[in-house]
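Researcher: Quick test of sequence recovery. Tokens follow.
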């Protein structure tokens, strides 16, 4: 079976009512994570991708442990061994940064800690605790190869700020971050979707609404069949109340078929599914599952909504 790869697109269709924008919703969901989830995102802040963070905060609680295991597995430089060298080195550098750098916050959360975790210990370090003629504040210069990385303690409280932004430093920093984030093939993004709830009509105790789901074509696997690109999306949505009792259920298959010319013409669009619901006023949890049958990829999400 031949798979066709799709590149990134970013077109959003206008709608009359949006509960929360994607970025705001991710931030809100992040604040509502359980302690284990918050700790994980905090610890991997320097290497987690925006795409990974979005998926993680939207996952049901029971699926987050599997995500975390996969997160580290995909960064393992030698999967055939029992030890994940990347993960061990990452956490060792966090501990070392906490030991090495003092200040108003833990060492690994300081600029020096971030650079140490991403780039490792410098080849050479030149401290200037009393300042110098060029910088009249306590500062340090770290050398990675031939270029310097400078940190300055403007407040004289141990909180050294990174001030070096030359092209060589940015290049090395980008390489280090890319190594930490290199988890997925760049020719295809993570299978994911955006969703929100739109109120349509409100009458006394009943509300009509639509669940809007948008899937970027870049996220999909297509099967090449004759001169067509085809796939099927399987969508199911369950609506429960606070007690977990099933209130509504929706299931449907969406068949997508296009040819290369048509796809090139419409590639900056998203496939949109709009599912109507009529519910009494109250608090509900929407459980969604979307499967891209060609690549057998699945994504599940939950959304709590008060009507």
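Model:
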């Amino acid at each position: 079976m031949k798979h066709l790869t799709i590149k990134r697109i970013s077109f959003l269709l206008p709608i009359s009512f949006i509960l929360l924008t994607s970025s705001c919703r991710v931030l809100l969901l992040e604040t509502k994570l359980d302690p284990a989830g918050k700790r994980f995102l905090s610890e991997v802040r320097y290497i987690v991708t925006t795409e990974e963070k979005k998926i993680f905060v939207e996952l049901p609680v029971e699926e987050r442990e599997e995500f975390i295991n996969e997160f580290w597995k995909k960064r393992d430089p030698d999967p055939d061994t029992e030890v994940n060298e990347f993960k061990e080195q990452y956490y060792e550098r966090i501990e070392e940064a906490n030991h090495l750098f003092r200040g108003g916050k833990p060492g690994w959360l300081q600029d020096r800690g971030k650079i140490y975790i991403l780039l490792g210990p410098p080849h050479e370090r030149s401290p200037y605790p009393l300042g110098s003629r060029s910088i009249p504040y306590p500062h340090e210069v770290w050398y990675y190869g031939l270029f310097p990385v400078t940190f300055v303690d403007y407040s004289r409280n141990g909180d050294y700020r990174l001030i070096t932004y030359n092209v060589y430093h940015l290049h090395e920093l980008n390489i280090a971050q890319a190594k930490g984030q290199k988890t997925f093939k760049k020719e295809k993004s993570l299978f994911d979707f955006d969703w929100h709830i739109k109120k349509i009509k409100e009458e006394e105790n009943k509300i009509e609404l639509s669940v809007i789901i948008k899937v970027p074509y870049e996220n999909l696997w297509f099967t090449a069949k004759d001169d067509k690109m085809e796939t099927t999306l399987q969508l199911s949505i369950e609506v429960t109340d606070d007690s977990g009792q099933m209130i509504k259920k929706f299931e449907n298959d969406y068949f997508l078929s296009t040819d290369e010319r048509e796809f090139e013409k419409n590639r900056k669009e998203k496939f949109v599914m709009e599912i109507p619901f009529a519910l009494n006023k109250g608090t509900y949890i929407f459980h969604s599952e979307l499967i891209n049958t060609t690549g057998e990829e699945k994504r599940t999400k939950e959304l709590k909504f008060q009507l």
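The chain has two domains: 3-20+188-306, 85-181.
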